[in-house]
């Protein structure tokens, strides 16, 4: 019997690699070993995740208590399901959602399915790291036709926006604020981390599996106040998730919550990362001074290389990073990583740096600016379509998101008129080794 995927994963597991990628349990180090035996269905003794009773309800109440929300929910469909649900709970069909320019592709996809219009507000780009900066205000973009706002905070690189101030701006106009805090489930673990958005936003999603000891797909959704329709939001959870949820995933979300409620090791991990950044700087590697100390972002823009090449070299040293781009590699460090892991990472970087040459001209290639026009993703997604070569697509309306993955932030959005600068940027990413979703053999789907 041949089982190619199973065999590849078994082979990977035997390599004993060091993971600085998600999930947070780091290839099983921090996960409960009995989870496989918990793979059951909706029985009277196990309850139904979509219809909480005694045990599920109790687990979700403890989750709510930890994060300080009015209502919290355990999900098995990841933050994607949470994003879908909270958007549907905040905006009706035909309404308009305001989103940060670095929002996840699940935001656009939800708008396409639900018939919601979307408008973006721009975010400044860091001149060295070419990543989006912190947002402190969005007041000028809160026009009368906006029904809800969604912001990713922290972003993929560990930078948080001023959610407290932005929430005040939104609430002055009775506009609900939704926060994609997928990368910040661990913020409540130690006082040195940023304050969780749950304290200020109307709805917040978190991917437990990204940084906590939870299986892939484990996530949390928190809801506060009355500016979003909680009943519709909860109904949407049942629509967007499987009617046969994974109980091992749900159970791991519960145990992950229990772990960070007590002595959890995040303080030690914080200090290990702080010291590692200092050591990396001593090698001549720039490190991003972000809000989440445990999100290591190493910049190589001073050298004749790319983040993709550094990622490949680390891979050859049996070290896996979370993501790479033209100039950076980003690594997720959790308590399931050890001091020894970071020592091996430093040794590998020291070895790599010996062969790097300074670049002759430091040119930072930033993502193209986001469109300022309101988009109607549903019209494009369901329109009669055809495929065309990406290089010939300028001026055509895209029926899909074209997205470097990770991090999953689209360069071209569904319903957007494709621009030459977007094509050029995507081609640069492809040549450098990026994985791009939304393309098929170099072709993109556009409206006929």
What does this structure look like?
By secondary structure, the protein is α/β, with parallel strands linked by helices. It has 3 domains: 4-261, Aspartate Aminotransferase, domain 2, CATH 3.40.640.10; 266-355, Aspartate Aminotransferase, domain 1; 376-447, Molybdopterin biosynthesis moea protein, domain 2. The protein has helices spanning 4-14, 54-67, 78-90, 105-114, 163-172, 208-211, 230-240, 247-261, 266-282, 307-316, 339-353, 377-381, 420-432, and strands at residues 18-20, 71-75, 96-100, 117-121, 148-152, 177-180, 203-207, 219-223, 286-287, 295-299, 319-321, 323-324, 328-332, 385-389, 403-404, 436-437, 443-447. Helix 2 packs parallel to helix 8.
What is this structure, in a nutshell?
This protein has 448 residues and is α/β, with parallel strands linked by helices. It has 13 helices and 17 strands.
Keywords:
Molybdopterin biosynthesis moea protein, domain 2; 13 helices; globular; Aspartate Aminotransferase, domain 1; four-stranded antiparallel beta sheet; 17 strands; alpha/beta; 448 residues; seven-stranded mixed beta sheet; Aspartate Aminotransferase, domain 2; 33% helix
Radius of gyration (Å): 22 Å
Order of strands across the biggest sheet?
Answer: 2-8-7-6-5-3-4
Overall pLDDT level = 95
Q: What's the CATH first level of the largest domain?
A: Alpha Beta
- At the third CATH level, what is the topology name of the largest domain? Aspartate Aminotransferase, domain 2
Structural class: alpha/beta
What summary fits the major beta sheet? 7 strands, mixed
Per the principal axes of the C-alpha atoms, what is the gross shape?
A: globular
Order of helices and strands: HEHEHEHEEHEEHEHHHEEHEEEHHEEHEE
**How many E-type strands?**
17
Give the helix tally: 13
Distance between the termini: 44 Å
């Amino acid at each position: 019997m041949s089982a190619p995927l199973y065999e590849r994963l078994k082979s990977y597991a035997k390599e004993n690699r060091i993971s600085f990628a998600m999930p947070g349990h780091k290839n099983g180090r921090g996960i409960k070993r009995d989870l496989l035996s918990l793979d059951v269905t909706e029985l009277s003794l196990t309850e139904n995740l979509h219809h909480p009773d005694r045990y599920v309800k109790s687990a979700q109440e403890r989750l709510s208590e930890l994060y300080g929300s009015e209502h919290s929910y355990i999900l098995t469909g990841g933050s994607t399901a949470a994003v879908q649900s909270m958007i549907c709970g905040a905006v009706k069909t035909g309404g308009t959602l305001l989103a940060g320019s670095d929002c996840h592709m699940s935001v656009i996809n939800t708008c396409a399915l639900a018939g919601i219009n979307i408008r973006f507000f721009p975010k400044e780009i860091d001149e060295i790291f070419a990543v989006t900066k912190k947002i402190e205000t969005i007041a000028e973009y809160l026009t009368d036709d906006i029904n809800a706002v969604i912001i990713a905070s922290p972003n993929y690189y560990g930078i948080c926006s001023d959610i407290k101030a932005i929430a005040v701006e939104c609430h002055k106009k009775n506009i609900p604020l939704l926060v994609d805090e997928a990368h910040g489930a661990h913020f409540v673990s130690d006082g040195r981390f940023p304050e969780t958005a749950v304290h200020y936003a109307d709805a917040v999603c978190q991917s437990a599996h990204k940084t906590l000891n939870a299986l892939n797909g484990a996530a949390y959704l928190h809801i506060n106040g009355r500016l979003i329709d909680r009943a519709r939001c909860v109904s949407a959870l049942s629509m967007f998730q499987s009617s046969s949820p994974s109980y091992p995933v749900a159970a791991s979300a519960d145990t992950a919550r229990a772990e960070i409620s007590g002595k959890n090791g995040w303080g030690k991990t914080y200090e290990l990362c702080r010291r590692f950044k200092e050591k990396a700087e001593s090698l001549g590697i720039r490190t991003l001074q972000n809000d989440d100390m445990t999100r290591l972002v190493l910049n190589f823009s001073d050298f004749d290389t790319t983040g993709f090449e550094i990622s490949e070299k680390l891979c050859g040293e049996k070290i896996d990073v979370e993501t790479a781009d033209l100039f950076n590699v980003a690594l997720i460090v959790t308590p399931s990583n050890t001091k020894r892991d970071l020592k091996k990472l430093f040794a590998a970087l020291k070895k790599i740096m010996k062969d790097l040459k300074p670049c002759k001209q430091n040119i930072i290639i930033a993502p193209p600016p986001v469109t300022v026009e309101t988009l109607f993703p549903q019209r494009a997604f369901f329109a009669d379509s055809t495929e065309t070569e990406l290089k010939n697509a300028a001026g055509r309306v895209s029926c899909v998101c074209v997205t470097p993955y990770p991090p999953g932030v689209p360069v071209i959005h569904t319903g957007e008129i494709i621009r030459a600068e977007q094509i050029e940027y995507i081609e640069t990413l492809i040549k450098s080794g990026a994985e791009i979703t939304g393309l098929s053999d170099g072709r993109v789907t556009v409206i006929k």
